[in-house]
Design brief:
single chain, 258 residues, mainly alpha, 11 helices, globular
Length: 258
């Protein structure tokens, strides 16, 4: 509990928390504005760029907008959540306080678990910010086609997709510890996003076994173009997540931190 309180305090006092929340809120608002432009093309005037961006929305109604929010969470999540994980673990090395932290009368495993709890709560907050900001913006622009049942279903898919993505933060944390900083884990998060698209295009039959593609398969945004995620898929994702968590704990327990 002491380690969790300390890690939570560091997160609450950091500018990173406020910054990430504002970024996710900004993205949600911009998605709502894109839908507004799609409904009222005259707002874009002669701006071909804005019109082209608004055209990706498709039908400017609630079903399309909720689907767009899910797609945005799956695209923004690996980057945003990866940055959170790299900051929570990498900052100890960048600020050169890891030795002081390890000198405290708290087990290293407890510190690692506390950091992962903070990451999970932080990423859940970002997900909720994106969803709530999107829904409020959709209400503000008066999107048509609202259905309570469809909204509940979409929110459930959104929540589970984000939860699966959050589970994949643990390998990023491990890389942050091994590299003792921010840059390599952030690069790894970008690489996983790129690799997900490459696997989906070049090796579609391998997609259900590539951990970072499984949240998208679960959400259904890939349609019928790619295979569905099965029990083995979720097993691979869980194994990847647990492997990253255990690897991070082992690194903190046995690695030379000098």
């Amino acid at each position: 509990m002491v380690a969790l309180w300390a890690e939570g305090l560091k997160a609450r006092k950091s500018k990173m928390l406020v910054g990430t929340v504002l970024v996710f809120l900004f993205v949600a608002i911009m998605l709502g504005l894109l839908v507004l432009v799609a409904r009222h093309p005259e707002i874009a005037g002669r701006s071909a760029t804005v019109s082209a961006k608004a055209s990706v929305v498709g039908n400017a109604d609630w079903p399309a907008f909720l689907g767009l929010l899910i797609q945005c969470a799956l695209a923004l999540g690996p980057m945003g959540f990866g940055m959170v994980a790299s900051w929570v673990f990498g900052r100890e090395y960048s600020d050169r306080v890891v030795k002081d932290l390890l000198a405290l009368p708290v087990s290293r495993v407890s510190i690692v678990l506390a950091k992962f709890v903070v990451i999970a709560v932080w990423c859940a907050l970002l997900s909720a910010t994106l969803l709530a900001g999107g829904i409020l913006t959709g209400l503000a622009v008066q999107l048509p086609g609202w259905s309570g049942a469809n909204a509940v279903h979409a929110c459930g898919v959104f929540a589970w997709s984000c939860a699966l993505t959050i589970l994949l933060c643990s390998p990023v944390a491990l890389i942050a510890c091994m590299s003792r900083g921010y840059l390599l884990p952030i690069g790894f998060a970008i690489l996983t996003l790129v690799m997900t698209n490459l696997v989906a295009i070049g090796l579609p039959n391998f997609t259900p076994y590539f951990p970072w593609a499984i949240p998208a398969l679960f959400s259904g945004i890939t349609g019928v173009a790619l295979p569905k995620a099965g029990v083995l898929s979720y097993g691979v994702l869980l194994l990847t997540s647990v492997g990253g968590l255990v690897g991070t704990a082992v690194w903190w327990r046995f690695a030379d931190q000098s």
